Amino acid sequence: YLYSICSSCNTITKEPCDYDLKIADIDPEKRICKKEGCGENLNLRKFIKPIFGFSTNNEKPEKPTLARPVSTYNRKIYFHKYDENERNYQEQVKYKDYEINYSYSPRGNLFIVNKGLYSSGFRVCTWCGYSTTEAVKGKKPHKDKYGNKCGNEYLSKLDLGHEIITDIIEVDIPNMTPDYGSDIYLSTLYALMEGAAGYLGIDRREIDGCLNYTNRQSIPSFIIFDQVPGGAGHVKRIGKNLDKVIAEAKKRVEGVCGCGEETSCYGCLRNYSNQVHHDILKRGLALEYIKALEN
Q1: What is the value of pTM for the model shown?
Q2: Three-class SS of residue 210?
Q3: Best CA proximity match to 193, nearest among 73, 75, 77, 96
Q4: pLDDT at 35 exceeding the cut of 90
């Protein structure tokens, strides 16, 4: 698939393409964002869906060492679109003096992409499926998973992608100040999900979220979705109890965990699935935003 995520409006475009398509040969018209009023130059990339999963080679494992392996964790989740054939509804919840709007959909389309180490992509053999995070230029002799020498020595640069359809809610958060950056919105988003897990008794691993800038470029909306395939109804409950979820989120980031306000820990905001954001998650920022809502 050929895809792009606009750096200006965050619009996602993707379409099937030939496996051997070269980015340099793509029509210049496709390099421009088509969203009305945007026109930003697009960074086009290719991704594949590993629908049959992954397998390792049959070589003997290397001797373990004390050095930690380099992490290639670079998975990011983006909201793509709603299913227009499904009935979506909007509701409003009051928290203190603010009316907070949210939309619910049983079939929200999410796009998950992994761009590899330092966003340099993966190198994949189109013959045997061999792949590596090594930034290979030119030929790369390699073996297939059975240990046989592969006849193809040229690897294609590709990302790994996946699409899921599940229950989602989109929360339109109040614009408290235009000076806030993505770090405060991400911190508040994860605080809300921790609050939802605590108040509603949801397994935290069964919900996740992301920011959505496609409707409002200055501030994002919060996308919260069910991790359970097809949806489990968790996010619908979150929407109906949003005021109580916010109150519980505040308790989560008030400092009971013991970490400083300038950081976060696994007792407040961090978990395995948001490792890519650990450096910018700060419980103090989430607390600041929730207090601003109250005042």
Answers
A1: 0.88
A2: strand
A3: 77
A4: no
